[in-house]
Amino acid sequence: MVASALAAGDGCTALRDAEQLRTEVGRSLPRVPARYRSSLAAAVESLPGRITCNPPAPAPAPAPKGHGKHEDHGKHKGRGGDG
């Protein structure tokens, strides 16, 4: 969840997810094998501090209909390259 929010450019969601992950890992730490606990706890603990809360960019406005780039308005008809 954290990675997908960051990939989408939504730092606020990523930060919220990282804080939730930290809480959940903290609760589950006793069930994690001892040799992994310290590195897991350190990584999860530092994650929220490395994320900046920035909301995602707004979606681009849809292009107006009828004014597409590739419409043919009759220009250049009948012009061959042989001149």
Radius of gyration from the alpha-carbon trace, in angstroms: 26 Å
Structural class: mainly alpha
Range of strand content: under 5%
| Terminal-residue CA separation | 62 Å
H/E element order:
HHH
Helix coverage percent of residues?
40-55%
Please describe what this structure looks like:
The protein has about 80 residues and is mainly alpha-helical. The chain has a domain at about 1-50. Helices cover about 45% and strands about 0% of the residues. It is built from three helices and no strands. It is rod-shaped.
A few lines on this structure:
The protein is mainly alpha-helical.
Outline the secondary-structure elements:
Elements: H1 2-7, H2 11-28, H3 34-46
Throw out a few tags for this protein.
mainly alpha
